[in-house]
Amino acid sequence: MQQGNLFTGIPAVFPQEIFETLLEQPGVRLERILSRGQVTPPGQWYDQDGDEWVLLLQGQARLAFADGSQLTMEPGDWVYIERHRRHRVEYTSAEPAAVWLGLHLRIRNPAATPG
Amino acid sequence: MQQGNLFTGIPAVFPQEIFETLLEQPGVRLERILSRGQVTPPGQWYDQDGDEWVLLLQGQARLAFADGSQLTMEPGDWVYIERHRRHRVEYTSAEPAAVWLGLHLRIRNPAATPG
User: Fold this and answer.
1) What is the pTM assigned to this prediction?
2) Which residues form a coiled coil (chains A, B) (predicted)?
């Protein structure tokens, strides 16, 4: 039986965001993401092929979307980001670390989607 | 864009566990579960057709498994429960309420499974 705790194993210092896959099955990937102040590099956007449900578990964060909207997130806040909705991480707290849970729902039939 | 917070909208009193579907897609269902002291009725077991990844976000809880093992859970603790692994909820805290996130991964090809 696999088990763990999402608030343990958080390094005191780390240079880049840490992505850890918690489970992966066809069409589904669950990951923990750790940030200590890291943000998406200037001018870059996430543009994902699958939908993502993302939850902030600890810390504070702010997302920005290509349509100009922003979303400030506190613990317990979740947002469903449709595929190809361009977004960036504008802010994450360093202390405490931002702890995210990301559920990626991938396209079941890639052949049906354009490039 | 759908969004919400998992720590809000928790009634002060409720007679039975509250199950709320956060998202549902083929093969995947994500739900928030709220408990205030409720447990699985004596002699009953959960025996699920699909695997479940379950996370305790707030409160305390204890699971029991049909093999005799028990698992005490604190916030951030998660466990992956394989399908047909019989389990029960033996304890949940009333204050604060136990807040769970359950990710149900259903069988993709039900025709291939008995009964």
Assistant:
1) 0.91
2) none
Summarize pLDDT for A53-108 with one digit per residue, the tens.
Answer: 999 999 999 999 999 999 999 999 999 999 999 999 999 999 999 999 999 998 65
Distance CA A103, CA A86 (A): 17
Q: Which residue of A has its CA nearest to B99?
A: A76
CATH code, domain carrying B54 = 2.60.120.10
Domain of A67? 18-108
Give the distance from residue A96's alpha carbon to the nearest chain B alpha carbon, in angstroms.
15
Structure ipTM: 0.90
Residue B80 has its nearest CB partner, among A1, A57, A108, at: A1
